[in-house]
Design brief:
There is one protein chain. The chain is of the alpha+beta class. It is 16% helix and 20% strand. The strands form three sheets. Strands 5-6-7 form a three-stranded antiparallel sheet. A hairpin with a 3-residue loop joins strand 5 and strand 6. The radius of gyration is 25 Å and the shape is extended.
C-alpha cells in the first residue's frame, strides 16, 4: 500500500524549500503543495513502499499499510524516529500492540571503508571483474546441443496453456 500523508499532522517541514520526505524518496514521488504547504505523494501507484519517507518524517505524518507478513489484515505500523534508533509500533486488528526498537546505525558514521583490501582499478579493456585477478577458464563447453522430441513439445505446450 503506498504512503499517505496526514494533512493534519504535516507541517511541510516548517516551510522549507524541500521537505524531508522529498529529500529521501528514491522515486521522487513526494512533493510539497505550495498553497497548503503540506507534502503529499504525487503518484501513489508508483510508490516502492520502502518506508524511507515514513522513517524520516519529523512529525510522524506519513503512514502506509504495513506488509501482510508482519501486520496482517488491517494492522498499522508506525515508526518513531529518535536520535539513535527507530521505535516501530505495530498494532494488530485485535488490538494487540508490539513495539520494536532498532538502532539507526550499527557503525560510526564515516568509519566504513568500502574499498579497503580491494585491488586497484585495472585495465578497462580486459574482461576481469573488480575483485578478480585472473579470468577463470570453463571446464567444458557451455553451448551443448539438446535434442527435443515430440513428447517434450506436447508437455511444454500443455504446461504453458495451463
Amino acid at each position: 500500500m503506498p504512503t499517505f500523508v496526514d494533512p493534519a499532522k504535516c507541517d511541510g517541514c516548517k516551510g522549507g524549500e524541500k521537505t524531508a520526505c522529498m529529500y529521501i524518496c528514491p522515486n521522487d514521488l513526494m512533493i510539497l503543495d505550495p498553497v497548503e504547504m503540506k507534502a503529499y505523494n504525487q503518484e501513489p501507484a508508483a510508490c516502492w513502499e520502502c518506508y524511507s519517507c515514513i522513517k524520516i518524517c519529523p512529525q510522524g505524518a506519513i503512514t502506509a499499510r504495513p506488509y501482510a507478513d508482519f501486520a496482517p489484515m488491517g494492522g498499522t505500523c508506525i515508526p518513531l524516529r529518535g536520535a539513535e534508533d527507530i521505535m516501530w509500533t505495530v498494532q494488530f486488528r485485535n488490538g494487540e500492540v508490539k513495539r520494536f526498537k532498532f538502532p539507526i546505525r550499527t557503525t560510526v558514521e564515516g568509519s566504513i571503508k568500502p574499498f579497503e583490501g580491494k585491488p586497484e582499478a585495472g585495465n578497462l579493456e580486459d574482461e576481469l571483474l573488480f575483485t578478480e585477478t585472473t579470468l577463470s577458464i570453463p571446464k567444458e563447453a557451455l553451448g551443448k546441443k539438446i535434442e527435443i522430441g515430440e513428447a517434450d513439445l506436447k508437455v511444454t505446450f500443455k504446461s504453458a496453456v495451463a
